[in-house]
Design goal:
By secondary structure, this protein is an alpha+beta fold. It is 24% helix and 22% strand. It has helices at residues 41-53, 61-64, 104-110, 115-121, 209-217, 270-276, 317-331, 341-349, 370-390; strands at 66-68, 80-82, 89-97, 135-143, 151-155, 160-164, 174-183, 192-201, 237-241, 247-249, 260-262, 266-268, 285-289, 293-298, 301-306, 356-357.
């Protein structure tokens, strides 16, 4: 029976090797301040408090990282990117101009971007009626998720699916990425490693009793079987996962892609699921992760890409910052790499889903103690606030 249940299977992220900077990067030839080894938990908590103290400086990721008016890899289909030989980033952040009748949702879907991604990248712009002529940021740059680059990887925090198709001889290895909808708060999408076990075109939907009851409580009638057609929430394609009750499927409500609106299943845009469906054989591995902070290297520079926690109980802002510090310290362990801790704080506190470089171009002498480090962050915050006031 086809179901879309939402029982929590697990919450741990599948393990993966931690990334190192690309071997052809220029970080070894540059003069950087000395990396400070991680502190104890109590000291790191104090440091996180210091990082939280200056909330005035707004994050400028959406403008700092914009590279142009259109993507440069026009020869590749939307959402297709050649895998970098060295490094972890693909795609670009660019802008387009809104026209009369556009919505942020429509613009996003035309560029392979979901609802929340567009809202985060374009704060203050009307979702339903952006003014004609408005520059709209397309956050089309991604740090590839940590772990093996094979099969399908779904990052529920990012609401994005990555597919690494096997490359034929002489073919450029690539990654394809698609926006998705995931389970809402009371119907979490499970985590773990599974496989596609069944594929069906034009499926009927057999809603479980729990969903029928939910509809009844809301005063809506739901039959025991919803046949294929425009009223079927599974859309035109479904792929069953090895975790009982969970699917990757299409939708008859594409505006929900990029939101937490499902009963735990993974929902794709109709055109995306139809393009992907014939190329994912039964047995394809599907890795489901919840990675709210992604780190990646490009040309010797460390980047960070942050997303909000799916649920408030997942952690506080201080916990987020402490975890980010730990991950960055691990990524730069043994390197003379100058981390911009003030920028790291901004990215974590205001997670916009756009990769941001956290290297310092003109490093100061290395801070040797926790208090030196906190003073450096505070001085950097004061400098940015003063620049903001002057402008």
């Amino acid at each position: 029976m086809t179901r879309c249940l939402g029982d929590t299977i697990g919450s741990r992220r599948p393990g993966g090797t931690h990334r190192s900077p690309p071997t052809n990067g220029n970080h070894e030839s540059m003069t950087f301040m000395k990396h400070v080894s991680p502190f104890g938990h109590a000291a790191r908590f104090i440091m996180a408090l210091g990082l939280c103290a200056g909330l005035a400086a707004p994050l400028q990721a959406s403008t700092d990282q914009v590279t142009g008016d259109s993507p440069s890899n026009e020869a590749w289909p939307r959402g297709y990117y050649p895998l970098p030989e060295e490094g972890d980033l693909v795609g670009e952040v660019y802008t387009v101009t809104a026209e009369s009748g556009d919505t942020l949702i429509d613009i996003g879907h035309a560029h392979g971007i979901g609802y929340q991604e567009m809202v985060r990248a374009n704060p203050g712009i009307s979702i339903w009626a952006p003014l004609p002529g408005t520059e709209i940021v397309i956050p089309g740059r991604f740090i590839l998720p940590e772990g093996p680059r094979e099969g399908v990887v779904v990052n529920v925090a990012e609401m994005r699916l990555y597919y690494y198709p096997p490359a034929e001889e002489g073919e450029t290895p690539r990654v394809e990425t698609y926006p998705i909808a995931v389970g809402r708060m009371d119907w979490n999408t499970p985590l773990g490693i599974t496989r596609i076990t069944e594929k069906v075109k034009n499926p009927a939907w057999y809603p479980p009793k729990s969903i029928i009851q939910e509809h009844a409580e809301e005063g809506r009638y739901l039959p025991n079987v919803v046949p294929a057609g425009p009223d079927n929430p599974l859309g035109t394609r479904k792929m069953r996962l090895g975790i009982p009750g969970y699917l990757i499927h299409g939708t008859n409500k594409p505006e929900g892609v990029g939101m937490r609106v499902t009963h735990g299943c993974i929902r794709m845009l109709p055109e995306d699921i139809e393009a992907l469906f014939p190329r994912l054989p039964v047995g394809t591995q599907v890795t489901l992760i919840n990675e709210t902070l992604k780190l990646g290297w490009e040309e010797g520079t460390l980047h960070v890409q942050a997303y909000p926690y799916l649920d408030e109980e997942d952690g506080t802002t201080i916990q987020r910052i402490t975890e980010a510090l730990d991950e960055v310290d691990e990524a730069t362990s043994g390197l003379d790499y100058p981390v911009d801790y003030a920028r790291l704080r901004e990215v974590v506190e205001v997670p916009r889903g756009i990769p941001v470089a956290i290297g310092v171009s003109a490093p100061e002498p290395a801070p040797e103690t926790l208090w030196d480090r906190l003073e450096l962050i505070a001085a950097d915050n004061d400098s940015r606030e003063n620049q903001s006031e002057e402008s």
